[in-house]
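[Primary structure, fold]
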Amino acid sequence: MPPEVKIYTRNWCGYCFAAERLLRGKGIAYEKIDCTGDRAKRQWLAELTGRTTVPQVFIDGKSIGGYDDMKKLDRSGELDKLLAGSSDSPPISTG
């Protein structure tokens, strides 16, 4: 079963574009959730992740952080493991 991937983004965000490009390059389907101008959604996201920046990426309900975090996971090989569904961490609700 493919992973459920959600990415919270904002218009004109270079890191958001880079995160999407990385996921597309791996052939991963994802749900893009645009937070542009949505203060309530950004506030909720900050409360959930402890971060105020986008993108914020979730794999099977687990926050993996932003683009830099995802790129670091990719370089270490851990991103492929998460995308294969081998995460042992409990999910975080992403509403």
Notes: The chain has four helices and four strands.
